[in-house]
Specification:
Length: about 160
């Protein structure tokens, strides 16, 4: 029997793939507009070389051909833990579910690799990210005071059982 296609709401809306060195300029551009203190090219390049680090990109086909980068996530898998370091969506593409989908993919990859826990830190004032993480199932478990030394802002530590 022919396999039925999944209903539209279950189909991935964006294409997700691992970042390669050639993607650096596009990723840096989103990093620059998304954060007050963006990561440097060197830092991102270093992540690409670590075995334990993964950078996933969410892309979309353009009508005239080619692809556009919508957002990305950086995570580490160490032992049984997925640690999310960074997630960002191009400001022009927000509230389309890009971060939700790329985070779902991150958590799925963690589960596939036998992880039992996902962790992250988020600025106390970052309402968009806090909402996103809570919606995904993360729960706040603590505070690291003055974690972001630049502004002396606290970090909320969040965890999720996988
Ligand atoms: C946080 C961020 C990654 C969200 O990206 P996004 O692709 O727009 O998020 P999604 O469309 O997948 O949103 C999923 C859910 O997150 C929550 N959310 C996202 N943006 C929000 C906002 N501005 N205000 C309130 N809740 C928000 C909502 O619950 C949303 O679901 P809904 O749209 O059905 O209400 C994006 O705002 C961003 O890049 N911010 C700057 C970088 C940053 O702060 N990253 C987090 C570092 S810890």
């Amino acid at each position: 029997m022919r396999k039925l296609a999944p209903p539209p709401e279950e189909r991935p809306r964006f294409e997700i793939r691992r970042m390669v060195a050639e993607d650096l300029p596009a990723v840096l551009e989103i990093e620059r507009v998304a954060f007050r203190h963006p990561w440097s090219p060197e830092l991102l390049r270093r992540e690409l070389s670590h075995d334990w680090s993964t950078i996933l990109l969410a892309e979309e086909q353009l009508e005239g051909g080619g692809r556009s980068l919508l957002g990305f996530v950086i995570f580490w898998i160490v032992h049984d833990e997925v640690h999310i370091l960074n997630v960002a969506t191009d400001p022009a593409q927000r509230r389309r579910g890009v971060a939700r989908e790329i985070m779902h993919e991150t958590l799925a990859r963690g589960r596939e690799r036998g992880c039992t826990l996902a962790t992250l830190e988020v600025r106390r004032s970052n309402e968009a990210a806090l909402n996103l993480y809570k919606e995904l199932g993360f729960r706040p478990v603590g505070v690291r005071p003055n974690y972001y030394v630049d502004e002396g802002e606290d970090a909320i530590v969040m965890v999720m059982d996988l």
